[in-house]
Design goal:
The chain contains 12 helices and 10 strands. The chain is α/β, with parallel strands linked by helices. Strands 1-4-5-6-7-8-9-10 form an 8-stranded parallel β-barrel, surrounded by 7 helices. The chain is globular and about 45 Å long. Bound molecules: indole-3-glycerol phosphate. This is Indole-3-glycerol phosphate synthase.
């Protein structure tokens, strides 16, 4: 099981969205909330709601998204990432709306189709993940422009120097360096140290960050960190977030 397998499964299961985009909502800017956190002395952390993952299996039984999102807000998160992929991550698209609590909500999924941009907006997302290696430069540029036409700045995920080049040519401005290898699913936090300095834009380090020390290390190269598993496994996710956001190792 790797990113290619998951993408294939998502393509197989894809059902075109037929709902209404309900224009009028102005998405919140993740980059602005990252800046704001840094300015008032919080470590900028995007807290992720992820019931399961292919590597960990079931992480947490989440009966109610709303109080979890609220506790992430109260405990200093600068954004909420919500897994919407159902089969491998136990997510649901309905979770996006439930996670809205005044922080930008990022749709985390294996998106590939231009129609999924309007769908993400309609479902309440403020931003959406685009995995650079899934696209050609032209199709990525189209996905980025499409997202911006709804006021959403996409988070473009990179795993390699080639991904960075493609993302830059496509006009990305908000990046995630994923520390998890998309073929082996193994985590290497050294990837952030290698790739983040090559990127011109706002950079988020994603995956495998568990401790205050690892967070501080990631933030010495990046503007923000995205943390899922460590929060989902904690007895009290809000408390675990708080000690990362306000703790200084
Ligand atoms: O749970 P972790 O190791 O803190 O990782 C969070 C996040 O980086 C991870 O969920 C993720 C990063 N990129 C993705 C793409 C699709 C699904 C999930 C992801």
């Amino acid at each position: 099981m790797n990113f290619t397998d998951i993408l294939q499964a998502c393509k197989r299961d894809y059902v075109p969205f037929e709902g209404d985009a309900r224009p009028g909502r102005r998405p919140l800017s993740l980059a602005d909330f990252i800046d704001r956190a840094a300015k008032d002395g919080r470590w900028p952390v995007i807290a992720e709601i992820k019931p399961a993952s292919p590597t960990a299996g079931r992480l947490r039984r989440i009966d109610d998204i709303e109080p979890l999102a609220r506790s992430f807000k109260e405990n200093g998160a600068c954004g909420i990432s919500v897994l919407t992929e159902p089969r491998f991550f136990g997510g649901s698209v309905e979770s996006l709306e439930k996670a809205r609590c005044g922080l930008p909500v990022l749709r985390k999924d294996f998106l590939f189709h231009p129609a999924q941009i309007k769908e993400s907006y309609a479902l309440g997302a403020d931003s959406l993940l685009l995995i650079s290696s899934f696209f050609s430069t032209d199709s990525l540029a189209g996905m980025i422009a499409g997202s911006r036409s709804y006021g959403m700045e996409p988070l473009v995920e990179v795993h390699s120097e080639g991904d960075i080049e493609r993302a830059e040519s496509a006009g990305a401005s908000l990046y995630a360096v994923n520390n998890r290898d998309k073929d082996t699913l193994e985590v290497d936090l050294g990837r952030t140290a290698r790739l983040a300095p090559l990127i011109d834009g706002t950079v988020v380090s994603a995956s495998g960050i568990e401790t205050a020390g690892q967070l501080a290390e990631a933030l010495s190269y990046c503007d923000a960190a995205l943390i899922g598993g460590a929060l989902m496994r904690a007895p009290d996710p809000g408390e675990a977030l708080r000690s990362l956001v306000y703790g200084r190792p």
